[in-house]
């Protein structure tokens, strides 16, 4: 019999099921008549839910009071009362339905259950913090527990009112339904039996409709069109399973295409960043070479001149030539390396000394250095271009009044290096161009190492790995400028 039923066509199966449903509906009618007599008992059981909520609220109040009592007196009796009330409250909330549901009452009950679990955890941590004499912690936990207590009380009150209102509405609806059912029950039952024959034909047509839609979508996919909306699933039978599988297949193909595009985009971005880094490094190296002009030969020649000056007793000339040699030796050895703040400061000292010899001591130079930061790493040839910028474009025409101040200090875990001058200052437009990494040139014919501020900014960003590497301040033209470098404290 079972195999014969499996061999029937879908239409005959539906007809058989429809007739069977008619018999079930008739049986349900009888059951409903009996069930109506039991509705009053069910109403009583539903109202018991309100009593349960009242018990929950009372138990919640007791837990809060006992916790507060223990925090105030810290006695073993108060602690025992808290644990007893907490266990009683936990037993009460275990009767709440914690499953996910779409009904408002179900959601509120689940919310009360979840908040109650969190509340009990917070009260236990409050008690433990009090016992451990962790004042700050138990104050924080107590505030959290008290806040949850307020939320739970509000939800319990709202759920109680909601259940009472729903129970009252259900009771009235059941009474009206009972009266109507007695009159229309038999009429509806005969109408259902007569209408099922018509529904069979309609149902057959509904079964073929998703098959037609599935065929059309499969044709589109075979043509390479994957930008289609998922097919709606009308049933859980074989047709529904096939439809779901088809939708999953299309979504998987779409996701795969998106991942391929994203991978290509990320790869392109990484390649562009790599090319940018290479460009900055090559630009820096080129400008080093342009600035140094065969420095090996130059500083060897300077050393020979220094020795000659020493032999002739020209001490000042010897010191000047020696500093010049050290300046060019730094360019050769450190031009492409990571150095320390101390080494960069030595280069600045030599550079200022050379300028003061050249300009008869017109440049005043001061330093405020935290010696603990001298070993922090930084890129080479960073401070000297900044100082050179301050001299050439800030204080050079101040006739002995120019001043350069270099400070090294720390803020949290950041090493800060500031270079400040009292020169002509900068406009907001110039500061904006420097901060954005754009080159700022002045056609004034003054000499330079060839390493511009745009190159300094780019190398600092590449070294640090973030953009906030330098700040530039100026109150306006004629009020000086200040450059501040921010570096992570990494020891060389």
Walk me through what this model shows:
The strands form 2 sheets. A 5-stranded mixed sheet has the order 2-4-5-7-6. It has 2 domains: 2-221, Four Helix Bundle (Hemerythrin (Met), subunit A) (Up-down Bundle); 335-488, Histidine kinase-like ATPase, C-terminal domain (Heat Shock Protein 90). It contains 13 helices and 7 strands. The longest helix has 88 residues, at 135-222. It starts with a helix and ends with a strand. A hairpin with a 7-residue loop joins strand 6 (470-473) and strand 7 (481-488). The protein is an alpha+beta fold and 492 residues long. Helix 4 runs antiparallel to helix 5 (104-131) and helix 5 (104-131) runs antiparallel to helix 6 (135-222).
Quick structural overview:
This protein is an alpha+beta fold and 492 residues long. The protein is built from 13 helices and 7 strands.
């Amino acid at each position: 019999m079972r195999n014969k039923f499996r061999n029937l066509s879908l239409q005959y199966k539906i007809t058989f099921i429809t007739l069977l449903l008619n018999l079930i509906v008739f049986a349900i009618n009888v059951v409903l008549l009996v069930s109506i007599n039991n509705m009053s008992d069910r109403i009583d059981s539903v109202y018991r839910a309100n009593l349960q909520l009242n018990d929950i609220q009372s138990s919640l109040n007791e837990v809060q009071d006992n916790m507060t009592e223990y925090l105030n007196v810290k006695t073993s009796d108060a602690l025992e009362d808290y644990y007893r009330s907490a266990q009683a409250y936990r037993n009460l909330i275990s009767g709440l339905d914690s499953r996910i549901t779409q009904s408002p009452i179900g959601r509120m009950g689940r919310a009360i259950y979840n908040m109650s679990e969190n509340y009990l955890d917070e009260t236990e941590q409050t008690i433990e913090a009090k016992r451990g004499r962790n004042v700050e912690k138990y104050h924080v936990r107590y505030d959290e527990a008290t806040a949850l207590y307020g939320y739970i009380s509000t939800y319990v009150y709202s759920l109680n009112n909601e259940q009472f209102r729903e129970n009252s509405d259900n009771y009235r609806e059941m009474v009206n339904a009972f009266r109507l059912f007695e009159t229309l029950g038999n009429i509806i039952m005969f109408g259902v039996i007569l209408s099922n024959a018509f529904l069979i034909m309609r149902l057959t047509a509904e079964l073929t409709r998703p098959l037609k839609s599935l065929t059309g979508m499969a044709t589109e996919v075979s043509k390479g069109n994957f930008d289609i909306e998922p097919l709606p699933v009308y049933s859980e039978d074989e047709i529904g399973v096939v439809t779901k599988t088809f939708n999953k297949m299309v979504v998987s193909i779409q996701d795969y295409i998106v991942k391929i595009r994203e991978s290509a985009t990320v790869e392109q971005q990484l390649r562009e960043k790599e090319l940018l880094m290479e460009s900055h490094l090559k630009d820096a190296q080129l400008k080093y070479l342009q600035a140094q002009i065969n420095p090996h030969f130059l500083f060897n020649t300077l050393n020979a001149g220094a020795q000659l000056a020493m032999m002739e007793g020209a001490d000042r000339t010897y010191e000047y030539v020696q500093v010049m040699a050290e300046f060019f030796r730094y360019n050769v050895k450190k031009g492409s390396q990571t150095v320390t703040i101390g080494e960069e400061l030595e280069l600045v000292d030599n550079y200022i000394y050379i300028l003061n010899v050249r300009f008869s001591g017109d440049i005043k130079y001061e330093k405020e250095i935290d010696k603990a930061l001298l070993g922090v790493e930084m890129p080479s040839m960073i401070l000297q271009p900044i100082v050179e910028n301050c001299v050439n474009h800030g204080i050079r025409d101040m006739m002995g009044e120019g001043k350069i101040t270099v400070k090294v200090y720390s803020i949290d875990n950041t090493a800060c290096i500031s270079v400040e001058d009292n020169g002509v200052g900068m406009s907001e437009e110039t500061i904006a161009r420097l901060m954005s990494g754009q080159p700022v040139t002045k056609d004034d014919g003054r000499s330079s190492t060839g390493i511009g501020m745009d190159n300094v900014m780019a190398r600092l960003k590449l070294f640090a790995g973030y953009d906030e590497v330098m700040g530039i301040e100026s109150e306006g033209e004629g009020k000086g400028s200040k450059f501040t470098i921010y570096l992570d404290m990494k020891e060389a």
